[in-house]
Predict the 3D structure of the following.
Amino acid sequence: MLSTYVVPENLRRIHTDFPVLRYGRCEGPVVSGNLKYSQLEICIRLSDTEEYAVDIINGREYRTPFPHVILKRPGSRYWYRSSGQRIVRYFYYPPESIPVMERYGMDFSSLIWPIVRTRNLDMLFEESDRHAEQLHSPGTPEQIDAVFWRILLELYLCRDSMAHAPDFNEKKIRMAASYLCSHCLEKIDLPQLIASCGMSRRSFYLHWGRFYSLSPSQFILNQKILYAKHLLRTTDDPVSVIAEKLSFSGIYFIRAFRKVTGYTPFRYRKASDEML
């Protein structure tokens, strides 16, 4: 099944650098093709009964798992082959949109990349389908432009997030740091936290040092001092009460606060008051 919708240019009242010329979807068997494009096609291949798509772009072969997006630039020659049942969404921009996109930071050096099919992406496609039912109504071309611009952003953001995805150990360390931030006022069982990360103590500290210059205990102390600064600025609580809230003895709190900030708590509060 192939559905293509041509966006009526004569109905556009608001013109942007990214007018969608046409868009549509294809569901069914794809055999092969050998095409040369005069416009920019953004082709989103959502699924296929085969594991990989096989494409040859300007003589170079690509094998890409589904789902993924492929950019078909004007003047380039594309050959593809498939014997599966494929679900595809696509939309077209005029060639003059490309330099504007590049100025916005959209990199065209990668013409194919894997994506994650999200509910947000599906909702945007559903919205484009609803607009197709009112294609010749005033205001619809502008709404279509807006929907597909959001889809394009989603595709590029997905590419960037996948390219810079943290490794598994980084994810565990970041989660541990988040836990320390949110529970810094409580008594923290650090060995238990390390065990929950599935790491030995040595491995945990090794990976922790890759991402944080402070040790976990210093990290907790800094979080407490940040909270203490907030209380000193926003409340009239005595320093002894703030120290108690942070589970510090009075004299140790003053020493720790001065070591981190360069001020005693009293001087910090006074300086904050003078700035108001």
